[in-house]
Amino acid sequence: MDGLNETAQDIESQMNEKEEVREIALKSSRTIVRLCGMAIRAMHLGNDPIPDMEEAMEELHKLVGITRDFPGLRHSGIVESAMQEYVEVKTLYAYTLGEQLPSYRDLGVTPEAYILGVGDLIGEIRRLALDNIRKGAVDDAAKHLDNMEKFYDFLMIFNYPDSMVAVRRKQDIARGVLEKTRGDVTNAIRSYSLEKMLASKE
Length: 202
Known about the structure:
Elements: H1 4-45, H2 50-66, H3 71-74, H4 77-96, H5 104-107, H6 111-135, H7 138-156, H8 167-201
Helix pairs in contact: 1-2, 1-4, 2-4, 4-6, 6-7, 6-8, 7-8
């Protein structure tokens, strides 16, 4: 039984350190989620999202760094959820600029976070399509719908158990969002065509 006290003290020291890192990581993750949300809002309002995105990137690097020596934290929902939000904002930004989407390697995130982030991107593109419909830019809304279908096809490539990546729920949500948007765009096209026809008869 000799040495148990020393072992207990060693374990306690490591666990205390892990707990401290976990608290820092939680705060960092929440900051990243908040910054990404602010950047997405800025994009939809036509404002500059870059300052918030850059701050989120710096915070993500910090989060990855402090959890590097703690695999349990590094691969936990704390880090993955922050990465997922970061993927969403960076891919949305590239999309709005008409640029090629960055890969998970470009962003320094896990493949799992990338898949889920692209799943969330579909919902943001729906918002863009609805904005176009409200403005009467039906053709642009239809283009967004086409792109949503491409991202949905990307999402449907992956068929893994939830223990690996919780993609099935994202697929179900994306399917519903896509169908709703298809209905909205179809109705807008019909309405626009009817307005043109009536205007031509006046």
